[in-house]
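Exercise 7. Given the components listed, write out the predicted structure of the assembled complex. Treat all entries as one system.
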Amino acid sequence: MTAETAATAHRPRRSGRTRRPLLYIVASLGLLVMSAPFLWMALSAFKTKEDLTSTTPVWIPSRWTLENFTALLDQLDMPQYFLNSLIVAVLVTVSNLLFCSMLGYALAKLDFSGRSKVFGLVLAALMVPGNLMILPLYVLMNGLGLIDTYAGLVLPFAAGAFGVFLMRQFMLSVPDELLEAARLDGAGEWYIFWRIVMPLVKPALATLTIFTFLGSWNNFIWPLIATNDPGKYTLPVALATFANDPNRTVGGGNGMLMAGSLLVVLPVLAVFAVLQRHFTQGIATAGLK
Amino acid sequence: MSLTTGPAASAAAVDKSPRGGGSSGSARRPRRSLSRHNLTGWLFSTPFLVLFGVFMLFPIVATLLMSFTDFGARDVTRPLEADFVGLDNYTRLFQDDKFLTSLFNTAYFVVVGVPATIVLGLLAAVLLNNGIDRARTVFRIGFYAPVVTTIVAVAVVWRFVLDPSDGLIASLASEVGLTAPDFLGSETWAMPSLIAMAVWRNLGTVMVLCIAGLQAIPAEVREAARLDGASGWQELRRVTVPLLRPTLLYATVITTIGYLNVFEEPFVMTQGGPSDATLTVSLDMYREGFNFFHMGYASAMAYVLFVVIMGITVLQLRLLKDNTR
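Answer.
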């Protein structure tokens, strides 16, 4: 139904005009269903204890308040968790951008012995479930003394197969003639990679940035395992610990949880909103075949 | 820089690459140029391969080795002292009712969740790409927002949505005189609730992939179909879906892999309950490994899941690719 009307609307001359409002109604209903939980979260963050514990759900706060945020900042070291999440996400993203691009460049543009084997390895790695490696990874990190360190949180995600795949696909579309001309002018491979290819693949870099940053920011299971010291908790781990804390007061506690969740979600939504256009373009150009 | 290659060397390399044009100067110094590009290629690959080797390949092999041992809490600090037990862990697994339940639950999650996610994601993409041109960004961000939200926040909100006494669905139901079930507390409803939550959360990924795919389809193709008098439904079935096949294949494969690994939803929402109704393989593995420190046993579990995932992925790639022709 939805799809039919969606496709029909593309014929403005025949029936588009009459169908278009219907499409907006369908899309708006979809938007409402998709975002209702968010609206609830965002609004609840500003509610008083009375509104939060009311037996009939209150959507719009009867009195807007910031007390959930202040209570949260009082009880939890939010700036520290925020900083931890940010440091880990930035390091993971930067290292993925660099290392995945380098290998992507080699796979797309450099002819070296073993190239097809390396690419095969990357494709196989795409299929390996992340949870498979977690037990020995824990033993390894424990042995290296990296539990409760940034290195322990970053290293396992510092270079992912998806990034290589994406960058390779995208770099295939960079014309060989361009690289050839640069080589004839005496440019080295590093210069070509850094100064010619990287600027040309910005949409792919934007895509990879979003995917990696979000993945790291929202990553839950590994930080849960790799940290014991609350000083090294990332935001999701800290919030989950707080959510499961039996001492959390029921009414106000929920408000604090909503406030905390809102603080976690807003930065990534902002990043996505800014990079959204390049993001889709990046996926489209890479083809993902 | 140390990675510099001479112009002649690169000409030869381009000639060898499948996409390169036939440059005539290449035949002269093939050996030297190959070795030079060899070095460059490997230098560019090394950082990734080192990280990959230490943090992925090694753990994969180690998991396999651990699965043949009775690796337990005491072995975490002295891994080499774990005792070899052969196939014991694997034979035990298939007599373990709890594990069989978790396999069944995981299959349930995949069989219902994957088609729902793919179909709804595709429909959302078609709707937002072709039907909507005003406020497009708002719609896209709204549909994609659940993807970028941390599971903890999602859990908080969905607990409210599903709460049997004063939750969103319960109060909507009571308005029309119905009583909502205790979603998360009921053995029948807990799993469908988690699936609904996962579909809600992952639909945006499929949508973004499909929008990207749709934008890669030349507008003329769709126009031609319309001029030939195809209805909207026909256009979707006969033109859009076949041309989106590579995207849909990719989306199906990653969604299936993700759902076979499903861990976060049951972990934060139900802890596997009520009475193991939402215990998935990954959650079972996590518990055996990190709560009970039966790491050898948990490793065997991880490997069974790995083999299942590999099998299903290869099967999907075959089935869906063959249908193209």
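Discussion: Chain A touches chain B through 116 residues (CB under 8 Å). Chain A has two domains: 3-44, 67-288.
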